Amino acid sequence: MHPFEGLAEALAEREAAGLYRRRRVIEGAQGPRLHVHGRELLAFCSNDYLGLAGDPRLAEALARGAREMGTGSGAAHLVSGHHRAHHALEEELAAFVGAERALLFSTGYMANLGVIPALLGRGDTVIEDRLNHASLIDGARLSGARLRRWPHGDLAGLQRQLGHASGRVLVAVDAVFSMDGDRAPLGELARLVAQHEAALMIDDAHGFGVLGPLGRGSLAAAGLGFDAVPLYMATLGKALGVAGAFVAGSELLVETLIQRARPYVYTTAMPPALAEATRAALRIAAEEDWRRERLRALTERFRREAAGLGLCLADSDTPIQPLLLGDAATALRWSEALAMRGILVPAIRPPTVPEGSARLRITFSAAHEEADLDHLLEALDSVRREAA
Fold first, then answer.
1. Active-site entry in 143, 178, 335, 365
2. Are 115 and 247 in contact (CB under 8 A)?
3. Staple 358 to which of 141, 188, 189, 331, CB 3.0 to 4.6 Å?
4. Does the pTM of the predicted model rise above 0.85?
């Protein structure tokens, strides 16, 4: 059978089910207002939580780095691609989160694909929350270890899985769940995992830069250190507005990943100019606490006023605010109705979220103004009344 046989029929079925995805072509810099196919839309769908993706200071740092160090690294870190800019960024990231070492990866997906197989294999066990990001699930599958999953947020379910685990045991969890916006109970998880002599890994893609003092992330927000959570991953393309990811932990962990994490060993290093832009972003994120304060204020006001409109929101205190609508067709209709009113919030549908939980994933940025939130609330109320 030809490997392309049946593809056209499968795509048609996806279209009929309201699950077909199409890309939007964006022009200009990221920000609250995006130019999409010739229209300006007010966007509430980005992960640019601190509003740094379009910050001219980062662009200048990137340009300066490119002038001094070129546009590419030329090779993998272990060949000739590890520049002083990468090394300085790793040291600054480690200091920022309070770890002995940090190691750069090109993306968060690659980090999770690299870390778990580097540490576990056949005969070992990985246990994950059912709503974990796909990269954590794929990393576990790639390792060859047994993958067990517990119902979302169910610590009793995790305890049962820990009781049946064998070999080396790693518990991996999103610190902030990307589609629901809720936080993992890290303190309780750390205590439970320690009782079973397992290790805890967190993916803090949506907490780093946003939560904790100075935006140091979910560990700091929970008052935990690397003794409780020895394996920490966070991305740089969300709150910091650049690209890439890092893993932080002990000297022993990082040296092991340098030797054994295949996406690190066999991937060309990120451009050193990008590392310079990331260093600038890290400094700005730490110094400009008003960005996190505005995020909190926008989120709290939105939840308060959305409740007054009778909108069904998920239980989240983060900038990720899912508006639960149920089926994919309804979510698409609401998204299209908002777009007609000049607001961009794409519909999130299965398999990204479970069947029956399609939604609008509304996200806030420190670059949003109160007037932007006014516009969003007015549009949502209009769509709600129209749907009723």
1. 178
2. yes
3. 331
4. yes
